[in-house]
Amino acid sequence: EKEPVTVLVTGAAGQIGYAIVPMIARGAMLGPEQPVILHMLDIEPAAESLNGVKMELIDAAFPLLRGVVATTDIQEACKGVNIAVMVGGFPRKEGMERKDVMSKNVSIYKAQASALEKNAAADVKVLVVANPANTNALILKEFAPSIPEKNITCLTRLDHNRALGQISEKLNVHVGDVKNVIIWGNHSSTQYPDVNHATVTVNGGDKPVRELVANDQWLNTEFITTVQQRGAAIIKARKLSSALSAASSACDHIRDWVLGTPKGSWVSMGVYSDGSYGIQPGLVYSFPVTCEKGQWSIVQGLKIDEFSRGKLDATAQELIEEKSLAHSCLN
Length: 331
Ligand code: NAI
What we know:
alpha/beta
């Protein structure tokens, strides 16, 4: 039998935490044959609630679940961790400035970077979900210099999946037949959902989404804004942010990273830029990636038209500003 993999979920008493831990324990993240040990971290005010989640995990009797640690001690939470899903963070509250939220979150990610570096497995894979996700991941990378930069990523798979969902609804095709959309840039409303390389499998062959939709007006306007603003639409409808889709997409992100992307298809991940597509190195930016043997690589050579170029650069510009705001908060 396989050795268990230790998965850390921070902010585990929160909404996404509550949705993701049963998915992990059922094998949705690492496959149906991979035993797991869950480490759940939250802060003191949530300690009792966190313990309630632990009780439920025991009660659900998941055969793959080989251990549960519920703790408010970041060092203990990070011990021996192979996969770290960073969901914990400080939410934006009424009357708070953007800078105040940024300041709280980058200090959290700076502290947690050191704890991961000290306690986690040397080859830990990190996924940052908490907002501002790209910039939190960047700060984590900067303050955990011994963790390879390739091992620190942020979640834009939810946006990617939302784009697949919109195309599937529009064309009335199975979502599993749509592939190769791209989310470029920041996990924010400046992200660019790009369908220029996306296809749908029809009668065993791949057809371009642009050809099938045959409505550039919709693809260039409403499709983009719907994906960009989907998070806000969910909050409006549910009075709570998207937790089940975020949790499910986080499982997709890790599963594809660890087990590989299917041949001929790519996914979107926020990764440390190497300068591909003219995006300056030193930003965590969402790119199309393929994964093999636990390593992602940015898909190269895609043609970027003028419309797309403007959008890739605009979202990069926002990340440059977030980075400098984050650094000013830490000084
Ligand atoms: P939530 O407020 O329900 O849960 C957050 C949890 O983090 C709370 O239990 C809180 O006590 C905990 N926490 C706060 N500071 C912590 C710390 N220093 N260490 C450990 N835990 C800490 O929020 P929810 O809905 O679960 O969302 C979590 C984050 O994910 C938010 O930042 C949200 O904006 C972000 N998000 C990102 C998405 C993405 O696609 N990248 C999608 C949806 C949400």
